[in-house]
What does this fold into?
Amino acid sequence: MKYRMNRPSVALSASVVLGAALLTACGNSGSSSVGSDGKTTVSVGVSGNVFDLSIRLAEENGYFAKQNIKIKYVTLTAATGTSALQSGSVQFLNSSPTSYLAGLSKGLPELSVATNGGGNPLGIVVSTKFAKKHSLTADSPADVVAKALADSTAGASSANTKAEAGIFLTSHGIDPTALKWVSLPSPAADKAALTKDEVDWFITSEPIPLQVQHEGDGVVVADPVKVPEWSSSQAGYGQVVVVKQAYAKSNSATVKGFAAAVQQATAYLGAHPADDAKVLAAARKTLPGMPDDVLSAAVGQVAWPATAKQDDAGWKKTVTFVKDGIGAVPDAKVSSADWTNKYLP
It folds into this structure.
């Protein structure tokens, strides 16, 4: 495929976890430690997806070291990221706008200090059996793909990705509610359901769809290149670096250094091809076990910004997408007090 864009079970209920986060938010700004070498070690919440690459590259290229910062990674999920930030388990959270806006809607004192990736790096992957039956290839036009999916069994492991599949289908005159949907617990379960013929296709974030294609078990028939509705320019979506308001006030120099390093990394990603040696080296650590062609393709689906600066127009577009486009946070809203560029170079 060609990409032209350069650049576990939880015992507590969600309400209890959020309640704990709210209580913690009142009196703990989080903590970071300074070692004998004078470098500050901070914990960063990551999700194990391609958007984490900018942070990993910043470490691998020495950008954090130049800011006297050391990184400790904590892998979190969409359900646990906000709570970890509010409890002080992590000082920085690489967050989706959906999770960030959901936290704001609950009154959590969060602050977005940088944007470090744009778009929705998603993939719709059909089984090889379904592809053969409908004569679908990776190069099939979007309208042909949508028409083929009209009478199918679809898999999704999150309401958000299901909604984004619906945006694609609706844009081509296909009613997503007419399909048979199978709700699956995880992206790994998506893959298993496809190989067992329990679903004809599924949608999830990269690199799993591309991995399925690489292994010969499916064909990626829709991605951000083919579906402009998922692009950064139309959806205003991507990834943001979030901290607690209190942490930013108390640790201004650290936040400035972190934001500067991330911006330098995203600029590098935007200026170099996806198969650049340094990009691939960092990608291998970000997404271990993935073949290089899968990594390069996934990296190429993200719009890496030359600057991490945010603006009102971008946030307005993002809120519209999250609130009305995918219906993820019905009361989503953001004010100028919730994000800032003051920590960027």
The two ends are 37 Å apart (CA to CA). The chain has a mean pLDDT of 91. The chain has 16 helices and eleven strands.
